[in-house]
Amino acid sequence: MDSDAFDIYPISHNGRVYNIITGMDMTFREVRAMLDWLDANGAFPSAGEEREPMELYSCPAEGYVFEVDVQGYEVIVYRRAAAE
């Protein structure tokens, strides 16, 4: 995916503000389900915590699997594939 095609979409969800960075159209249901899954799986830092970059997350949401990178509260969505 061409990095020039990425857009930044700020979203407030469950008391936090995230930047969703992606080149694809996503529904609000997909975004909220993805954020809930990432939060439940410890992808976001706690207050004052700094993290090293990790591998991509394979995040199931709304019948798809999203390949995402999390950097603080920025979520970069690289790919969407149908869930098996």
Could you explain how this protein is built, in words?
- There is one protein chain.
- The protein is 15% helix and 43% strand.
- The model has no long low-confidence stretch (mean pLDDT 90).
- The chain has one helix at 28-40; strands at 7-13, 16-22, 57-61, 64-71, 74-82.
- By secondary structure, the chain is an alpha+beta fold.
- The longest helix has 13 residues, at 28-40.
- It has a 5-stranded mixed beta sheet with strand order 1-2-5-4-3, covered by helices on one side.
Defining key terms:
single chain; 5-stranded mixed beta sheet; alpha+beta; 5 strands; globular; 84 residues; 1 helix
Which helices and strands appear, and what pairs or packs with what?
Elements: E1 7-13, E2 16-22, H1 28-40, E3 57-61, E4 64-71, E5 74-82
Parallel strand pairs: 2-5
Antiparallel strand pairs: 1-2, 3-4, 4-5
